[in-house]
Write a structure and sequence with these properties.
Length: about 260
């Protein structure tokens, strides 16, 4: 097993396109065990594609993806199931099952893998309660997803992730659609869970407040590659106009409304 501080996930020379649209031309990125790494970039640059390639929902056209010494691009479907049990994925929409109550949503992954985990129903019930308590939602097992606010849905989705005790959690736009209070709450959970459970976290976001708040390191995707990676201080000190414009929320030259209307 990889020790804390050693490379856990490595993308090397990864290429991915959809038709004529090139998403990654040469993706090289290393994620270290125990860190929280945030992936930055504008809409459509492939941030979520990177996560989906890691868990096998998408296949790279070329290159290597290694997780804990295992080359993922050569795995079959059955072997990939073992990898997915080690990686939790918090989808942007939380992806709860509307027909299941909160308790059954959180228990879903445990029951799917019960033969592997060999957990009794009582053990599952206890794990569900502990996971919901960890995200600040004790005693809500009987509620339905339709009764939850957006922030609560995200937290239930996070409880489902941590219930299976993964080694890595992938957060896909965790603060999208949330008000400032719930955004701060989710950010605190990302940090708190990483510290309490010693989990490696990969966060995809375009929200610079979230990025600077939760990250040990950041990596920015630009034109199919990693433009810059480093600590929040490295990003704040960067003079690269693409980095500065993204951090400050400034449209590139020539994309202001007056210019576009004049064309």
């Amino acid at each position: 097993m990889t020790e804390i501080g050693e490379p856990l996930i490595q993308f090397s020379g990864v290429k991915k396109r959809f038709g004529t649209k090139i998403i990654y031309d040469n993706l090289d990125l290393t994620i270290v065990k125990g860190e929280t790494l945030t992936i930055l970039g504008g809409s459509g640059v492939g941030k979520s594609v990177m996560l989906k390639m890691l868990i096998g929902l998408l296949t790279p056209d070329a290159g290597s993806i290694v997780f804990d010494g295992i080359e993922l691009t050569k795995l079959g479907a059955h072997a990939y199931g073992d990898i997915r049990r080690r990686i939790g994925y918090l989808f942007q929409s939380a992806a709860l099952f509307d027909s299941l109550n909160v308790g059954d949503n959180v228990a879903y992954g445990l029951r799917e893998h019960q033969a592997v985990k060999r957990m009794t129903d009582d053990e599952i019930h206890h794990r569900v309660g502990a996971s919901l308590e960890l995200v600040g939602l004790p005693g809500v097992q009987e509620m339905m997803p339709s009764d939850l606010s957006g922030g609560m849905r995200k937290r239930v989705g996070l409880a489902r992730c941590i219930a299976v005790q993964p080694e890595v959690i992938l957060y896909d736009e965790p603060s999208t659609g949330l008000d400032p209070i719930n955004t701060a709450r989710i950010n605190n959970l990302v940090k708190g869970i990483a510290d309490a459970l010693h989990i490696t976290s990969v966060v995809v976001t375009h929200d610079m407040g979230t990025a600077f708040d939760v990250s040990d390191r950041l990596a920015m995707v630009h034109r199919g590659r990693i433009l810059l990676q480093g600590t929040p201080d490295v990003f704040k000190a960067s003079n690269d106009p693409n980095i500065r414009n993204f951090i400050l929320g400034i449209a590139p030259p020539g994309e202001d409304v007056a210019t576009l209307l004049a064309q």
